[in-house]
Design goal:
five-stranded antiparallel beta sheet; binds FE2/S2 (inorganic) cluster; Rieske Iron-sulfur Protein; three-stranded antiparallel beta sheet; 2 domains; binds protoporphyrin IX containing FE; 10 helices; alpha+beta; 49% helix
Length: 348
């Protein structure tokens, strides 16, 4: 971790996650095409167009999942496992979207005199009309953003772009989402897309994504306010120790604004800063793997009792003193120095 970048280690969770993504995509496409073949008007629908639709709809669905993971994990720890490896989900989303775009470009633009990529942008110049807007260009905007995100998701880029640049780049996912929504709606308006179901899917998807983000923001705001209103120098009551799932954490905010991640493991609790030394990832949304706090973003690890990365790495985060009274965790809001040992508190 002190080196230029650290390759992400493979573990069983990551393999299971990848298998679930791969099988999910294959099943989605197979079911979509099978249902489409059995219900479509065979004179107007070909397997090629069904495949283009299936890939586009699959990519759109995956984009919703990517956007929903963050707020879901903030609303309930049940969804935390989805955070692990979400980069793989993002890269898979790009691959499916790129397949959709490639097939669509070849199918609709590959047989004319113009280069297909030129034809994509100039064959329909009605950029001033809603009903016949060249909706494919909006798909292209989204695809470029998804590509940038997938390409820079590797640790090499994370380490070479500053956290601010990297985060800004990944916030572009919302622009990509907007572009795809318009791509689908304007496509439907211009007679593409076949079914009014797509319009309903866009509306329902938007309501779900907006509702989740709003709900997560309200819930987080309530938690922050309650924790900030606690007296400044008092130890913070962080709730019952046994309500924290094994090898997971509860995040509390000190009156100073410092975020503290309190981990439960091996019958003890320890508290460290919630902010990872790598790219400020939320350590408290990670879990304990092999006895070490493991960041959910890129897998950097820290000893929960000392805040130090295991040798040969040298990264350190702040620790916080904890004690347990009547089964409830009390945490000192004053941080210890980075890497300073803090005695774990035994539960019961
Ligand atoms: C260069 C990029 C893209 C091109 C050229 C393109 C092209 C097309 C075309 C031609 C259609 C209409 C298909 C039909 O006639 O039924 C379509 C629909 C659709 N596209 Fe794209 N697309 C692109 C990017 C994307 C991206 C990035 C996504 C999602 C992440 C996406 C999602 C969809 C969806 C959900 C539909 C509706 C399904 C359908 O109409 O069949 N597209 N796209
Ligand atoms: S490992 Fe990258 S932010 Fe924590």
């Amino acid at each position: 971790m002190a080196a230029t970048y650290k390759p992400v280690l493979w573990n069983r969770h990551k393999r299971v996650y990848d298998v679930v993504i791969g099988v999910g995509i294959a099943l989605y496409l197979a079911i979509f095409i099978a249902v489409g073949m059995s219900t479509a008007d065979s004179a107007n629908t070909s397997i090629e167009i069904l495949a283009i639709s299936a890939l586009g709809a699959c990519a759109f669905f995956m984009l919703h999942v990517v956007l929903a993971i963050g707020p879901l994990a903030r609303l309930s720890t049940t969804f935390l496992p989805l955070l692990y490896n979400r980069r793989h989900l993002g890269v898979s989303l790009f691959v499916v979207a790129a397949a959709h775009a490639t097939f669509a470009t070849v199918w609709y633009h590959g047989f004319g005199v113009l280069n297909p990529l030129v034809s994509l942008f100039v064959s329909n110049p009605r950029y001033d009309a809603i009903g016949s807007f060249p909706f494919e260009s909006l798909g292209a905007v989204a695809l470029v953003i998804l590509f940038l995100m997938a390409a820079t998701s590797h640790d090499f880029w994370l380490n070479n772009l500053s956290p601010a640049v990297w985060k800004t780049l990944h916030m572009l996912v919302y622009i990509a989402y907007g572009a795809v929504v318009l791509h689908v709606l304007l496509g439907a308006a211009s007679g593409h897309g076949g079914s009014p179901l797509y319009v309903w899917a866009v509306v329902v998807g938007f309501v779900i994504i907006a509702g989740l983000h709003l709900g997560a923001a309200i819930a987080q705001g309530g938690r922050d306010r309650a924790q900030r209103s606690a007296p400044k120098n008092d130890w913070i009551d962080a709730g019952p120790a046994d309500a924290i799932p094994q090898r997971r954490a509860r995040i509390v905010i000190a009156p100073s604004g410092a975020q503290i991640a309190i981990f439960r493991y091996d019958g003890r609790v320890s508290a460290v800063s919630n902010v990872c030394a790598h790219q400020m990832g939320p350590l408290g949304e990670g879990c304990i793997v092999d006895g070490l706090v493991t960041c959910p973003w890129h897998g950097w690890q820290y000893d929960p009792a000392t805040g130090r990365s295991p040798p040969p790495y040298t990264e350190r985060v702040e620790t916080f003193n904890v004690r347990i009274e009547n089964g409830r965790i009390l945490v000192d809001p004053k941080p210890n120095a980075k890497g300073a040992p803090a005695t774990p508190a035994a539960i019961g």
